[in-house]
Structure prediction request, 235 residues.
Amino acid sequence: MLRTLTNAGIGVSLVALFTTATAGQQQDSRLATLKRDVAKDIDSQFGATQQMIDMVFSFGELGYQEVETSKYLTSILEKNGFRVERNIGGLPTGWMARWGSGRPVIALGADIIAGFPTESEDMFARSLELVDECGLTQLHVFPFSPRPGTPAAQMPQVHRAIAKERARRLREKGETALRRHLDQEIGGCRRVMAESRALGRTEQFVPVRLARPTEPGVTLDLTMTGHDGRQLLAA
Prediction:
């Protein structure tokens, strides 16, 4: 959850780049200024971010039992203007945070561990269901790997082959969710910022393959004509 919280904060700053950058001759200089401002804003959160990391690790809670972690992170979100919905997916510790309304929209992803100690098939099924219930579009999935000397390494382990199989199923779920999201984008007009001459990103940070070479930093309004399963294709 901390990873999502941190990425959401960076995403809000990145969205500011898209929504405030203007076209024309002044765009390059303004873009450079905006990038410096975003970097400065992110750097200013270093102390707060480190404090959150230390606090979360101090709780030392197991999966699906992150009671204090959930309380701590949601209280920070609410103090910063987020609307928090709790008990997501029927989990007492599950939550979803929203900020603002209308456009632009922040697209969220998640890191999911498969085969953590004591994970049952029912628990794993809940992980699969959360992908749809939380509207996740990007997943980073990895099987649990015990670190010697840690409490988790002393707990009953899920067989390695089962953990790898569950990770495979989660990755397939993530690929399906991404394709569904990309399908919904086809035909729409999106504001895209070029990261390189051939690749850009929408306001939701979705990668877009550009139809023609474009100078990095230029913002364009483009129609999405298709996708290759991983990135959108623009006209």
